[in-house]
Design a protein that fits this description.
- This is SDR family NAD(P)-dependent oxidoreductase.
- By secondary structure, the chain is α/β, with parallel strands linked by helices.
- It has seven helices and nine strands; from the N terminus they run βαβαβαβαβαββαβαβ.
- α4 links the parallel β4 and β5.
- The termini are far apart.
- The relative contact order is 0.13.
């Protein structure tokens, strides 16, 4: 038997070059086998080649049939996930008068409906085990609808409320659901270009986010968090 067969399994969506990859690294370092979901097969393959306990599953989370097929593969190849981290995100800046409504529609599909589909598929096994964690990475758009964010905020608000409903139902059954409100510009190459000249302290580090998600997924059940806010020390709020 492979020694990794006894390791728990985490499934992480939205594995990109920033927070997603950092989440994968943190959970692999913590002794998990990780199922990585994203549309970019090449990026996933490169990360899987670097991390033997991370497995690439190229998948568009808005395609429910593809998600079902992927989850079936994950169960066969890795095992039943004990942790779900929904990090995939869609949306963008735009006034409600000017934006393409398709932006909002895709945001609901990725941010809300994909979460619903994944949670409905994975929660029953967690309930049966009496343990598990579902963690969602969100942002301050889930709490306020500023004018330029009409293409994102409605979907993130719906995502947060869905998480709260899930938490209230699943918590008494031993499954921890938490929502991470990220109030920051995350440090990735494109944000460094967009905010050129800002000091390092302006940016939030992906590895720091991953560390907090790890903490949430392993909180003692006597002191669970639901809404978990993160911001750099210098952020005005």
């Amino acid at each position: 038997m492979n020694s990794s067969d006894n390791k728990p399994v985490a499934l992480i969506t939205g594995v990109g070059p920033g927070t997603g990859s950092a989440l994968v690294r943190r959970f692999v370092d913590g002794g998990y086998r990780v199922a990585m979901l994203a549309r970019d097969a090449e990026r996933l393959a490169a990360l899987a080649a670097e991390l033997p306990d991370a497995r690439a599953f190229a998948c568009d989370v808005t395609d429910s049939a593809a998600v079902d097929a992927t989850l079936a593969r994950v169960r066969v190849e890795l095992g039943i996930p004990a942790v779900l981290i929904h990090n995939a995100v869609a949306g963008g800046r735009g006034s409600f008068l000017d934006m393409d409504p398709a932006l909002l529609e895709r945001g609901f599909q990725v941010n809300v409906m994909a979460l619903l589909h994944l949670a409905r598929a994975l929660a029953p096994d967690m309930i049966a085990a009496g343990a598990g964690a579902i963690i969602v990475t969100g942002n301050t758009s889930s709490q306020r609808g500023r004018a330029p964010f009409a293409g994102l905020a409605p979907t993130k608000a719906a995502q947060r409320i869905l998480c709260e409903s899930m938490a209230r139902e699943l918590g008494p059954q031993g499954v921890h659901v938490a929502y991470v409100v990220i109030d920051a510009v995350i440090d990735v190459p494109w944000t460094r270009r967009a905010f050129a000249g800002q000091p390092d302290s302006f940016f939030m580090q992906p590895a720091a986010i991953a560390g907090e998600v790890w903490h949430l997924a392993h909180q003692d059940s006597s002191a669970w968090s639901f809404l978990h806010e993160l911001r750099p020390f210098g952020e005005t709020w």
